[in-house]
Amino acid sequence: MSPKRACDTCISRKVRCSGFSPCDTCRDASKLVICTYSRPARKRGPKARRFARQGQVVDISSPDRPQSHGRLYSLPTKSKVAPDCISKSVLAVIVRRYQQSSYGVWPVINADALLQEIKSGEPEDFDPQAAIFYCLVTSLCAATMAQLHLAPISDGNSLVDSMVLAQTCQRIRDNSNCDRGNPGINSILTSFFLHVYHAKLNQRTSAMICIQDAIAGARILRLDKPSLQSLSLSENKLIVNKDLIFPLLWVTERGYALHLNISPSYTSVPSVMELASGPTVDPQARGVLHLVRLFVAFDHISLHRRSHTSVASASYLVDTENELASDRLSMGGQISARTADCHITREWMRTILWQEALALGFLSSTSYMALTSFGFPGQIGRDLLVSLQYFTAADLLPLGRDQLFKCFEIASTLADTILLTPTTSHLGCEFGPQDFLHALYQKLLPSLEQDLLLKSNLHSKMAKVLVVAPNRLLMMETTNMREKESKNHRVAAGQKFTI
Fold first, then answer.
1. Among 45, 205, 243, 261, which one is most buried in terms of CB atoms within 10 A?
2. How far apart are CA 60 and CA 394, in angstroms?
């Protein structure tokens, strides 16, 4: 029977390996050979041309699905081997889902114009510009399918999922040099959507490379300086809210870098703050500008924390928290994923500030400032619940794993606070930290079904809180008994005084 794994030396020499440590070949060698198994294991068998996942298959030919009976897009490639094909109808279905659910999160693509372009495209029209367009379409579809957890779509005899779309996009970029050294707006957005896809899969290195590539390309096009933007942007009918592209890239990289605790590639503030009050700004895009304001308010402590300068004072943290807490997003009562994104991001930043105060030893049980008190995570949990009370799991789904992780960190911090300081679970109010944690867990539970690791970690902490935290019912009964005894003593004292 052949061994399950060959050592590094046998792999290099292409000889049979016994699989022992050391193996027979290395042990019997005439010279001293160190037998190691450090090389990563590679998948066996022929390379698959299609990647199919188990699960429900969406049939685009069903009556409730929009249909497009155009010809198939052939992928542009330099190889003589016939490439895989993704039909127009499949792409159209996913683009419509972007239009319905994800446009509020990424309000930069004109879905109607994109659908029209897909419908009119022909395989023989694949020049370099068409290849760039096809990269944009496939990357957008990959990000949309990943964020919305869409089931694989049947496309003839194969299945199309986010992995197939992302690999198709990457293969086109690798085989085409049309956007190398001269990035355009389509290639910049392609890098952005590939970042979303990799971030959803928690592929951190690839995600960071993609967003930094998009930032670098945007700076070449002067998108960080709206007054100096290239005139070619106005000619691209596929792009909307052109002034919002760089702010979207900026907040995405800033949030992801903060999540990974690394420095962002672009440290300046984008010059777009005046756009927030502009009458032509898409209402969906106002949330992006609000995120910019939140990160600007947070940046002076975030960048200070990463530097090796003097330690921040408590008032420095409190001023930042006050600025974040007072910056409320007004969307006219509109329920959108981007609105929820702003609420979650603000409370997440306040949680980081409290953690900073904890690490610096500023917390006190007698503090008159909320940020430096042990019960502040309970206040954050309550504020987040109030902000998200009208949002459903479907509203939160387009936000992706980053926002889910922020909610997890808020809930996890609250759980740790209850476990470490159980006496903060007060009885004087109707609801306490445990109630906020329980309600927050129930709010996040439908979204956590898509991330089993976060669900397991939070579920474990919830179980500890339930076991370790004080029994509020028993404590209330004890308090009632004490009040009753005190009342009896007062009554007895009054009767004695009367006699």
1. 243
2. 22
